[in-house]
Every structure is written in C-alpha cells, then in structure tokens.
Amino acid sequence: MQNDPSSGPSQRSDVQQHYSSLETASLGIEPDVRRFRDILKGKVREDLRDYITSDEIIAQHGNDMISVPVKEISIPRFVFGSNDQGVGEGDGEGESDGTKGQGGGKKGGLGEGKHIREEKFHIEELADLLGDELKLPRIKPRLTSGLEQAVPRYEGISRRGPPSLLDSKRTFREALKRSIAEESFDEDDPVVVPIKEDFRFRCARLKPRPKTNAVIFYIIDVSGSMGELEKSLARNTAFWTDAWIDRQYQGTEKCYIIHDVSAKVVDRDTFFTTRESGGTLISSAYQLAKEQMAARFRPDEWNIYVFHFSDGDNSSSQDDAQAVGILKQDILPFINLYGYVEIGSHNGGGGFIRYLDGQLDDREEVVTTTMNNRKDIIPAIKSLLGTGR
C-alpha cells in the first residue's frame, strides 16, 4: 500500500500553521475581552446608583459573583444607504416627505426591542465601583490582630525550578558571564547559548504579614414602628457597607443583633426578616454588643464597626441616657466607627438621634444620619464610610 502524498510533510506543515494561527488568535482576543469588560463596567457605573437603591442585587447575598442587569450595548457601525436628511447648518425649514410616523409611533411593530442582559461581576468589582462613585476614602485599620499570614513573594532566585518561573534576563546574564570567563565569546558573532548551570529561576519566599481582622456589628430595631420599607432601607445600606469594608480587610466577621425591649444575636436571614412587634429599649442592644465584644471580639485583636438602624422611638429618656452611657464607657473607646441611622423620623417619631448628637457631637468615631426613602440610601452610605476609619 502506497502512502497518500496528501499526508506528507507539506500537509503536516499546513496543519501546524493552522493550529499556530488559532493559538495566536486566542491570545490576540484577550485585549478585546478586557476592553469589553471595561465597557460593561462603564455601563454598570452609569446605573450604579439605581442598583444601590434596589433590592435586586442584595437578594443574591452569600455569592461572590453577582448577576447585574446591563442594558443592551450597541456597537457603532457604518450603514450603507442613501442619506435622505442631508447635511447643513442652521435651522431647517421645508415640507414633510410624507414619511412621518413610520417606525416612530406607539403602535406595535415587527422591529426588535431593547433587551436587558445579565453579566457576572465579582462583588469586589462592585465595591470598587461604589468607592469610585462615592469618592470613598480607603480605610486605614486602627490596629492589627497580631496574627500573621504567610504571603508568597517571588523575590528569591534558585538554580532549579519549573520552566514557567525561568528568569530569562538572569539566565542570559549568567550565560554571558560564563562565556566571557571561558573566552568563548566572539564579539563578531555574539551568540550566547545557556547551558544547564546558567539557568536561574524565580522562587517564592513566604513572608509573614500582619493580618488585620474586622468585625461588623449590625443592630436593627424590630419594634412595632419598624416596617418593611424601613428594613429594606437598612438592608441596602448594610449590604453596600459590607461590600466596602470587606474590600479593605483580609477577613471580616459579622454579628447581627435584633432588639425591641430585649436584644439577641441572630443569623443574617433572621436579621432582615423578623416581623416587627413590641416596644423599644435601645440600651438592651448596646449591652449585648458590649458582652459580645468582651466574649468573642477582643478590641486589641479586632477592628470593630457598629451600625445601628432604628426609627429612634426609644421607650424613655432614661433609656436614652443609659444607652449613651454604655456607648461612652464600654463601646466607643474600643472601636473604629459607630454609625447610627435613624429611619423614618419624618413620621413624627424618633428623637434618639437628637440626644446622640447632643451628647456625642465631639466624638470623631461617631457618625449619625437619617433616612426617609430610597433617595437617602446613597447619602447615608457616604456619611457612614466617608470618614475612612
């Protein structure tokens, strides 16, 4: 049986060239993919304020990757055809050509409409967009936990290693030094061929780095005056606050506390879904936060944040004084930031924020703000995170 001439070296060369071109094309598309991701981020940035004030993204909590609805992206392109409108300057005057209403009315048609597509974004990407949009300062940790984590850094050089870590410049330098020492280097024909002993590889050295931990206390009032809107405003503010603080630390813990006349630690779902009932004793929540700090989150090992959401309708002025007393003595001296958000105070209730401002107005670690509707979410986030603490 004779060999098929078509399967000879020429064809194999064509196949190799074909796969080589495919590989080059796959590498060449990476800049286009990065450009497309930048375009997507630009679209998300345009509507970021809408995302922040809706519950659509927050519903996906617990996932590192978030599906974000992005408006249709149209790519500019030339269209061949006649230019019926013409080109000129100044105000146009003339008669209609009789085509008014074609394709521009409100009746149904056969044309395609605008579509919404969902794109996956890492929560860290959205946090960075949030920081850029609101011009949030980077947080400087108040302290480190004293714990250390080993971080690999490729700062060492070794004579052995995998090809992927080959240091070409150092290898060439060693080969050049060797050939000059052996007097085999020819200036007229400067060819340097490294041998095994010339190879140099980058190697990792584990360097200890202080690990900064943070714990966020979220406290919400679930008394009878806190309805679904109030909890939704709290949920949005807490979600984006979470995203930004998580971006600043290697690890964060969350402690969720609900309270009416008594307080208890709950999981995240319970925090946002507990039905409202009963009266309000704000001091009960602060007392529990104080106990949790002592038992689980030592202030010398944790950067501590406390955010409280309430309508401010406390049971009595005596409890106002007791709550602020706990803050002054047992919480504020040991934390990075205390933020109090009074929700729905325009309904005539509230008042705790006024007492706070009167007692703690000179404390840098204290931030107070109010929210009445979804338009107030963004200013509230900026107020809470704008200190950079």
Explain this structure.
The strands form three sheets. A six-stranded mixed β-sheet has the order 7-6-5-8-9-10, with helices on both faces. A two-stranded antiparallel sheet has the order 1-2. It has helices at residues 9-28, 30-46, 48-52, 123-134, 168-181, 228-248, 268-273, 282-295, 317-331, 352-360, 377-385, and strands at 65-71, 116-122, 148-158, 201-210, 213-221, 251-259, 263-266, 303-310, 337-343, 366-371. The chain has three domains: 18-73 and 119-134, no CATH class; 148-209, no CATH class; 211-385, 3-Layer(aba) Sandwich (Rossmann fold). The protein is 37% helix and 20% strand. It is an alpha/beta fold. It has eleven helices and ten strands.
- Element string (H = helix, E = strand): HHHEEHEHEEHEEHHEHEHEH
Strand numbers in spatial order across the main sheet:
7-6-5-8-9-10
Q: Kindly give the count of domains.
A: 3
Structural class: alpha/beta
Largest sheet: 6 strands, mixed
> How many beta strands in the DSSP annotation?
10
CATH class of the largest domain: Alpha Beta
Based on CA inertia axes, which overall geometry fits? elongated
Average pLDDT, rounded to a whole number, is 76
Helix content: 25-40%
Task: Work out the helix count.
Answer: 11
Radius of gyration from the alpha-carbon trace, in angstroms: 32 Å
User: In CATH terms, what is the fold-level topology of the largest domain?
Assistant: Rossmann fold
The fraction of residues in strands falls at 15-25%
- The stretches of 5 or more residues where confidence is low (pLDDT under 50) are 5-13, 22-27, 96-105
* End-to-end C-alpha gap: 82 Å
CATH architecture of the largest domain: 3-Layer(aba) Sandwich
